[in-house]
């Protein structure tokens, strides 16, 4: 006779019964209560009941609006100070204080290499005369979670050299530094620069203003190059070139957790811990019942499907 193959199996179940007022029944309710309570305590101890922050990666929409601030420092023997800002009131104050206003020539190129309608790189070319301090405030928008618009998160820079130069090249990665959590789902807009700044202390006042904002922008992996090229006379001055190129990658932003997200993560963590805690308690209960450590009555074995 040919050997037989196993085509189907069904386990046999044993029933262990006990009176309502018995140690076995008490242990059944106590183990169920202990499993639930222990899972809640572990969830609470691991802070799973209050996920207060959420972290989301997003590549921000960054546009350069051609608003720039320049402070030109001339040699100590010269009393001429050159100044420029996009705020008309500041320029009027500078003129009243015998500053010379110098209008820069700006060319901006936004490059989108991956076709997601968000700039991957911004190159700014500026022509002016003898600048030593510059501030570039790009406009930045986040829209993946909350709609956030930064009307001026400045990038600061200053340049000094003991040798004469008339061209500066700067390249770096744009990195956002966040101070406070963003709203979970809401609109948030930062205010731009104020016209109350003083032209003489503009650099210091703008740095103080930037520190008080939620976002600041820094250049990571920055490289600079200064050099002297062929001088081009423009009237009584010398043309000076400033080229700024920054790469814009995916950033990490932190948001507040709303009620539904908090409940969702608390429920997921509770269920995970419940499964973990329930297994050893179930094994211990089976050991007690099967070895008659807790008195029970064993019923007839029957098929699980019936």
TrEMBL record:
The keyword Zinc does not apply. PANTHER family: CHST5 PROTEIN (PTHR14605), TRANSMEMBRANE PROTEIN 231 (PTHR14605:SF1). InterPro entries: TMEM231. This is Transmembrane protein 231. Keywords: Cell membrane, Cell projection, Cilium, Glycoprotein, Membrane, Transmembrane, Transmembrane helix. It comes from the Eukaryota. It comes from Globodera rostochiensis. Belongs to the TMEM231 family. One of its GO terms (biological process) is regulation of protein localization. It is found in: Cell projection, Cilium membrane. The chain crosses the membrane at residues 270-289. GO terms for cellular component: ciliary membrane; ciliary transition zone. It is a multi-pass membrane protein. Transmembrane component of the tectonic-like complex, a complex localized at the transition zone of primary cilia and acting as a barrier that prevents diffusion of transmembrane proteins between the cilia and plasma membranes. Required for ciliogenesis and sonic hedgehog/SHH signaling.
């Amino acid at each position: 006779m040919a050997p037989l193959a196993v085509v189907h199996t069904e386990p046999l179940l044993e029933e262990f019964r006990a009176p309502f007022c018995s140690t076995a029944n008490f242990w059944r309710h106590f183990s169920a209560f202990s499993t639930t309570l222990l899972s809640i305590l572990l969830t609470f101890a691991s802070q799973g009941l209050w996920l207060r922050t959420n972290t989301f990666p997003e590549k921000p929409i960054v546009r350069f609006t051609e608003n720039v601030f320049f402070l030109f420092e001339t040699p100590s023997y010269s009393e001429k100070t050159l100044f420029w800002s996009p705020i008309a009131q500041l320029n009027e104050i500078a003129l009243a204080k015998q500053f010379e206003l110098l209008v820069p020539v700006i060319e901006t190129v936004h490059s989108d290499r991956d076709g997601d309608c968000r700039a991957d790189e911004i190159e700014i070319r500026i022509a002016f005369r003898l600048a030593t301090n510059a501030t570039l405030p790009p406009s930045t928008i986040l829209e993946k979670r909350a709609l956030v618009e930064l009307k001026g998160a400045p990038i600061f820079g200053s340049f000094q050299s003991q040798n004469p130069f008339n061209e500066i090249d700067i390249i770096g990665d744009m990195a956002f530094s966040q101070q406070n959590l963003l709203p979970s789902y809401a609109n948030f807009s930062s205010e731009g620069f104020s016209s109350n700044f003083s032209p003489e202390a503009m650099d210091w006042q703008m740095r103080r203003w930037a520190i008080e904002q939620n976002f600041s922008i820094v250049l990571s992996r920055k490289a600079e190059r200064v050099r002297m090229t062929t001088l081009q006379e423009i009237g009584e001055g010398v043309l000076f070139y400033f080229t700024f190129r920054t790469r814009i990658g995916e950033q990490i932003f932190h948001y507040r957790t709303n009620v539904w997200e908090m409940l969702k993560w608390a429920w997921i963590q509770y269920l995970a811990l419940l499964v973990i805690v329930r297994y050893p308690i179930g094994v211990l209960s089976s050991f007690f019942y099967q070895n008659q450590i807790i008195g029970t009555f064993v019923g007839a074995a029957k098929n699980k499907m019936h």
